[in-house]
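thread: overnight batch results

M.L. [08:02]
morning all. the overnight job finished for the chain we discussed friday. pasting input first so we're all looking at the same thing
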Amino acid sequence: MVRLKITAKGQVTLKREVLDHLGVRPGDEIEVDLLPKGGGKIHAVELKRPIENFFGSFAYKADRAYTIEEINQAIEAGWAGEIK
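M.L. [08:03]
and the structure it wrote out:
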């Protein structure tokens, strides 16, 4: 159990342990469901972003086209530990 203290302004600072457990970071949102008898349930708000935001996220514009042989050499060098 984690105890939190209420400030004079009625605010609560969530401890790192709580933030990590909820998986939230600065700018994220949480919701509190009010339950009977003064109880509450807190959970992170799942962000719903448009699929358009994902388009192009893996786009990489190379300065030139690479041949299959060059790609295979790069793969072999990576597996051999020659490239870091």
